[in-house]
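Form 7-S
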Amino acid sequence: MNEELSKYLPKEDSWLVLRENGLLLSDYHVEVLLRNGINYQNYTSIKEILFAINDILDEDYDEELDLIAKQIDERNYYNSKKN
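Output:
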Protein backbone atom coordinates (compact mmCIF):
# COMPACT_ATOMS: atom_id res chain seq x y z
CA MET A 1 0.00 0.00 0.00
CA ASN A 2 1.15 3.49 -0.72
CA GLU A 3 2.71 4.92 2.47
CA GLU A 4 1.11 8.31 1.88
CA LEU A 5 -2.37 6.76 1.70
CA SER A 6 -1.83 4.45 4.68
CA LYS A 7 -1.47 7.37 7.09
CA TYR A 8 -5.17 8.14 6.54
CA LEU A 9 -6.35 4.64 7.48
CA PRO A 10 -7.14 3.80 11.09
CA LYS A 11 -4.49 1.79 12.90
CA GLU A 12 -5.29 -1.89 13.20
CA ASP A 13 -5.38 -1.74 17.00
CA SER A 14 -8.29 0.72 16.79
CA TRP A 15 -10.54 -1.63 14.78
CA LEU A 16 -13.50 -2.93 16.73
CA VAL A 17 -13.51 -6.66 17.32
CA LEU A 18 -16.46 -8.73 18.52
CA ARG A 19 -15.02 -10.43 21.59
CA GLU A 20 -15.93 -13.88 22.92
CA ASN A 21 -18.29 -12.34 25.47
CA GLY A 22 -20.21 -10.41 22.80
CA LEU A 23 -18.63 -6.99 23.45
CA LEU A 24 -17.23 -4.79 20.70
CA LEU A 25 -13.82 -3.59 21.83
CA SER A 26 -10.67 -2.68 19.96
CA ASP A 27 -7.29 -4.18 20.82
CA TYR A 28 -6.33 -0.76 22.15
CA HIS A 29 -9.37 -0.71 24.46
CA VAL A 30 -8.48 -4.19 25.73
CA GLU A 31 -4.85 -3.16 26.32
CA VAL A 32 -5.83 -0.09 28.37
CA LEU A 33 -8.48 -2.01 30.31
CA LEU A 34 -6.05 -4.81 31.21
CA ARG A 35 -3.35 -2.31 32.17
CA ASN A 36 -5.82 -0.83 34.65
CA GLY A 37 -6.84 -4.17 36.13
CA ILE A 38 -10.09 -4.60 34.20
CA ASN A 39 -10.40 -7.99 32.53
CA TYR A 40 -13.07 -7.38 29.89
CA GLN A 41 -13.80 -11.13 29.76
CA ASN A 42 -15.34 -10.92 33.23
CA TYR A 43 -18.09 -8.59 31.99
CA THR A 44 -21.21 -9.25 29.95
CA SER A 45 -22.21 -5.70 29.10
CA ILE A 46 -20.66 -2.38 28.17
CA LYS A 47 -22.48 -0.75 31.09
CA GLU A 48 -20.70 -3.10 33.52
CA ILE A 49 -17.33 -2.19 32.02
CA LEU A 50 -18.13 1.53 32.16
CA PHE A 51 -19.12 1.15 35.82
CA ALA A 52 -15.79 -0.57 36.58
CA ILE A 53 -13.88 2.14 34.68
CA ASN A 54 -15.66 4.89 36.61
CA ASP A 55 -14.82 3.19 39.92
CA ILE A 56 -11.14 3.28 38.98
CA LEU A 57 -11.29 6.85 37.69
CA ASP A 58 -12.90 7.97 40.97
CA GLU A 59 -9.85 6.65 42.84
CA ASP A 60 -7.03 7.40 40.40
CA TYR A 61 -7.52 9.45 37.23
CA ASP A 62 -5.94 7.99 34.10
CA GLU A 63 -6.22 10.01 30.89
CA GLU A 64 -6.15 7.00 28.55
CA LEU A 65 -8.74 5.14 30.59
CA ASP A 66 -10.97 8.22 30.62
CA LEU A 67 -10.57 8.55 26.84
CA ILE A 68 -11.60 4.97 26.10
CA ALA A 69 -14.50 5.27 28.56
CA LYS A 70 -15.79 8.22 26.55
CA GLN A 71 -15.33 6.33 23.27
CA ILE A 72 -17.09 3.23 24.56
CA ASP A 73 -19.90 5.25 26.14
CA GLU A 74 -20.48 7.27 22.98
CA ARG A 75 -20.65 4.16 20.80
CA ASN A 76 -22.99 2.53 23.32
CA TYR A 77 -25.25 5.60 23.29
CA TYR A 78 -25.55 5.69 19.49
CA ASN A 79 -26.03 1.92 19.24
CA SER A 80 -28.89 2.12 21.73
CA LYS A 81 -30.54 4.89 19.68
CA LYS A 82 -30.55 2.71 16.54
CA ASN A 83 -32.75 0.10 18.21
